[in-house]
Amino acid sequence: MGSSGHRANILNPAFREIGIGFFTGPNAHHSYWVQDFGTRGGVYPLVINGDTPSTASPQVNLYLYRENESWDEMRLRNDDDPWSAWVPFTPTLSWVLNSQPGEHRVTAEVRRGRSVRQVSDTIHLIAPESLPASGEIQPAGMSLDYSTASPGEPARGVVASAGSPQKAEDGESILGDPTSTPPSTLSGKDTFPLFTGCTRVNVTAQNAAYEQQVVELVNQERAKAGLPPLRRNPDLDYAARYHARDMHDDGYFSHDTYDGSVFVCDTWQRLSNYYPTTGWRGENIAAGYTTPGEVMTGWMNSSGHKANILNSNYREIGVGYYSGSSGYRHYWVQDFGSRSGFYPLVINREAATTDTPQVSLYIYREDSTWTEMRLRNDDLTWGPWQPFSNTPNWTLQWLKGTRTVSVEVRKGTTVRSASDTIELTTSQYTLGNLPDSLLFIYDQAAGRLIPPSYTLQPLNTSNSVSLSWTASAADSWLSVSPSDGITPSSTFVITPASIPSGPGVYSTTVTVTVTSLVDPPVVSSPAQIRVQLSVVNALDHVLYLSFIQR
């Protein structure tokens, strides 16, 4: 490379093949090296991993030559497996070998009309990587450019180079890895299409916890890269769930949509049914991985999928997961997007829950000319207008349940709003440590009340703040004493003040109410305790355990 002439040979774009010779002996210069370069007419090679002899991972990179732009479609296969579907030609893509150690061959066919050329390359798989044997990732890292499409009819045939996402002139784009593996039926699977055609179907979550974990893991990776969090979008969730379920039930693995083995619509069309936008959109898919952590590791180890996860143009995300008995069994989809004119607010990097009211916010804005904002909790009064900040700290209304934070951002007289929710698992004030019901038994023959009384201690179970309370019975035959107190030191005693004369079951309630004037209101106040008195002629057994139901 230090010689300009030799360097020119090595970097000559006209060459497609190379041969190397080396000999060492006792004479003259001892070691002799030769590089021979060439290009054969009509031969357009496929190269695996830069022509390295071996790999420790079944995930490899391919480079395909073609004669000219008129060769517009290709298909591939592993070893002697069935061919993939015909897809738009791309020179660079990721590929997944069969997972058994040993020599593997990847074969490509490139076609123009009825003319087809075939080429292959081999590589030795030393050992599969430490991912599940059934794990597979869609070939990654390419971007579709729909700039040549007529309005409403995006073309399927123009694919950009790997790792170079772009936004088309008409404003629509898909980022990621649209090239597909075989849409044919997976082994042992008869196809019974769940969905027909390319219409919107809102599929409910099969495992909402798995989907939420993927969202949180995505935002963790974005935080490591210094990127803002994505807000979860229910329409993108529906789009992702539809595709995960459809791939399983129709027995294919592709970004495009199929009814069985029949092509229905491409990624762009499917996403448009759920998430029409003039902004950015993208998708990652995977199959075979059994947990959110495993599939995220697989995606982050693939440059194209990682680029989607860390794409700064996205502001929203949807996740779909479906598990069944066929094919790869576990199917995962991430759909990304950004809507023109919509700039989200995200609480705690889109975590599902928090046990503290102190949270962090991320607020998107269109540009620096949007200079002011104001915030509010739930449906409470707006805070004052203040200088805009992307990352303010905030305190939720400390009340257990779904909490909402809303923001308004303004430029002059123009105002845009956004909101997000999070589940707060604690409250500032909670009346607790009280049973749901109590039971007394009175043995008339023995003149004995079992138990003689109950002593209860109301508490603020959220924190140590003292709360004043009152307690009263709905009927006069039951005594409550004392009738008021303060947490946590005070207790009160419940006992029958008088015993009804005849056998039977007598019921009433005790109501405990916090009287402290606090904001927000106390959770579980007033509390009602159901009290039953069972009067019997005589007990059959002398042993009785007091009954308190909490």
TrEMBL record:
A Pfam family recorded for this sequence: CAP
Domain SCP: 215-336
Chain residue ranges for the region called Disordered: 147-187
CDD domains: CAP_bacterial
Record's compositionally biased regions (Polar residues): 178-187
PANTHER family, per database record: SCP DOMAIN-CONTAINING PROTEIN (PTHR31157:SF1)
Name the record gives this protein: CAP domain-containing protein
Native source organism of the sequence: Anaerolinea thermolimosa
